Amino acid sequence: MRNFSTGRIALAAGVMAFGGALWQAQAAAPEELEAATATYAGKDVYGIVNLVPSPVLRTYINARGQVALEYIALDDRLHAGVFNGERLLDISPPGHDTSSVSGINDWGEVALQIRFPRTDPSTAVFQPYRWSAARGLVPLPSPNPDTNTFLQTLNNRGEIVGGSDTTGDSNYRAVRWTAANRLLPLPSPTGLTNTFATDINENNITLGDGQSAGGASHLIVWNAAGRATDLGTLGASSVVSRFLNNRGDIVGLFDFTTPNFTSFLLSPGKGAARIGLNTVPTDLNEAGEVVGRVQRSNNENRAFVFSRARGLVNLNPSSFWASEANGLNDSGVVVGLAWPEQYAQSRAWRWLRSGAGVDLNRRLLNAPGGLVLTNALTVSANGDIVAESNAGLVLLRPNGGGTDAPVLGPIQLTQLQVNRPVQLTLSLRDRNPADTHSATVDWGDGRGPQAAALREYRGKGEVRASHTYTAQGDYSIVVRVTDSSRRSTTLYERINLLELGTPGQVAKKRPQAHPQAPGR
Fold it and tell me: What pLDDT does 503 receive?
């Protein structure tokens, strides 16, 4: 099953430095960029839901618009969260060191791996878990509780796949867990080691890869009973697996450690079709369509969609510097990002199967002031889109849908210096115009939340506050807006405050490297 994910493909060192592509087809010219604050008056609009402040690493969405995600919380730890359709739940257990998600199925089950601290930090390892609203967090049996186990995805039958470092020497073994949480180590084909399962479809067919004695990576398919078939390298020097759909289409990469790497689509009875030179696939749908980016020098990438019927279609907006496609659904809706100029801020982008593209900032219904969508990460079967913004991660719901919680724009700060008032403003919107609101700001210097001034009229408002810091340092500013129905939305911003005369800065926490098996 494909869980539409933000996770970028991890390639070997040196791959990302090469570029160049030949286009087999050209999409219709997309609409040009307009101001991000514009509101589109037509029917093609999206309501906005604040999910979690930045930074966010991986996200997944199911057909019901539920979202599993991992984010850096105020405790500087990686947390796992689930948006259940109405609110975000932190599903990280007490005392954890790092919690990381690997997928969510249409029943709302989440696959994740969790690491707990140990007396000797070098011995701390990731172990597998399943979460559901009905049963909460459930540990999965591990081949070796003293070594790392990483999950990759799960299907709607509750089957989970991944890999486990069974001996502690970074030689992984592909594994599968049943819906009843029974561990099924997947056998390695003769002559292959270091196997890892990367995807599973609704027929319980599992995709993965393993290494030969000579170091070449082979494609492997395990049937529902767990019997392995070694598909070899398909004529390349090496092959790595990525995606598998329900009709048996496979997407992967040929020669991924060389300048001439390319992605491929392998279909039952049709062989492997090379998608294009330096193409990096990011998603596959049930129609056999593949999206991704052509990796070019200086990251001047080009978003693409590929199918056997249409070939390689360039999605890069006309006259734009670069673009990337991150996900698609079975209706052919593609989402990603585009840069109008090399050093300009990126914009979240959406393409339809017709090839028409649009800046999603032009499709926002009643957006709070200052909000800019910078990257569309994933799209669900029902058209919900998860996007990055300058106000953190947001969910875009078609036809103006949303929740009854307030929608907040970015925290905007001025005068970041010691012994001078720091000015804070924040715009809010509420789809319930009769609601009234209150706001608090915790400035992060030990004084706790303080009431903030809020002006509003019929669902539109602005928070204003001022605070003077007397010592330099790092602070986390937390703003909470609550409506009269007791629904609230919280944003936070980290700042680095310097002495008077030296400009301060907003300090974005650098995301930690996502835990994964080496080379995967």
Answer: 57
